[in-house]
Design goal:
Length: 257
């Protein structure tokens, strides 16, 4: 018989739940997450906000700051998916503050939530073309990731901030950040580099190198890419869709100030 993946996922979310009145709060929490995410595709956002309120209420019943920030992160993600950007940013801001407190207390639950919500908040800002505040978030993310040896987020923080500098007409700074992104990504396994946004960072770095540096620097970069990606690095960067890595959206007049 054909496997119904949607049904399988829903059944997994519902496990330990059943219809019993003695359903545990943790099982109810899992089911409520599913309800919230199901609402992200509906036009009536009022239902989404009701389900989010129920989710946050369950988080309070579960107790503990880790559950509270987890609920806020899910709310931020759900609102972002539903294009409720102001609501998303509000939840993300709360989660960022509270997860930072967990990080300061050396709670391992803090950093994963913090970095996810920083990414959400920055994405909201980018959508509103508020590039400089988004750059500050992405660079802050990269710095924190460096202190935690999180190679992937080092790469993403500098890659995304580099692209925003490019859109602001600062190719030199953009190139420097893209090099930092590649350096961070170089600590990932090669197979990960070959199948991740490392390729986008590499494509953009080559593009900016031609604009801001000399031929010798270009050759050095190409040698590094061969080392990091393999002998077929050039063909990887020419794959379908890779040309979008260097697309530049227009900035507003005020963003150049």
């Amino acid at each position: 018989p054909r496997l119904d993946m949607v049904a399988a996922i829903k059944n997994d979310m519902d496990k330990d739940g059943g219809n019993s009145d003695t359903v545990s709060i943790s099982a109810r929490f899992r089911r409520q997450i599913r309800k919230v995410m199901d609402c992200t595709t509906q036009q009536d956002t009022g239902v989404l906000h009701q389900e989010i309120s129920l989710l946050l209420s369950l988080c309070k019943k579960m107790g503990g700051a880790a559950h509270a920030v987890a609920g806020l992160m899910i709310a931020a993600q759900a609102c972002f998916m539903a294009r409720e950007n102001d609501k998303s940013a509000g939840y993300a801001d709360k989660a960022i503050r509270q997860s930072r407190q967990l990080m300061d207390a050396h709670d391992p639950a803090g950093y994963p939530t913090w970095k996810s919500c920083v990414m959400i908040k920055a994405a909201v800002l980018v959508g509103k073309k508020k590039r400089r505040p988004a750059i500050a978030l992405y660079e802050g993310l990269a710095h924190e990731a460096a202190s935690r040896a999180d190679a992937f987020m080092i790469m993403e923080g500098y890659r995304l901030s580099g692209h925003l500098y490019y859109e602001l007409g600062q190719p030199g700074t953009a190139f420097e950040n893209l090099l930092l992104a590649l350096t961070g990504g170089s600590y990932l396994e090669q197979e990960v580099r070959r199948q991740s946004t490392f390729l986008h960072a590499a494509r953009m770095a080559l593009h900016l190198c031609k604009k801001t540096r000399g031929e010798d620097d270009g050759k050095i970069l190409q040698e590094r890419l061969q080392e990091w990606l393999g002998n077929d690095w050039a063909s990887l960067l020419q794959a379908e869709g890779m040309d979008k890595a260097t697309v530049r959206r227009k900035s507003t007049l005020f963003e150049f100030n």
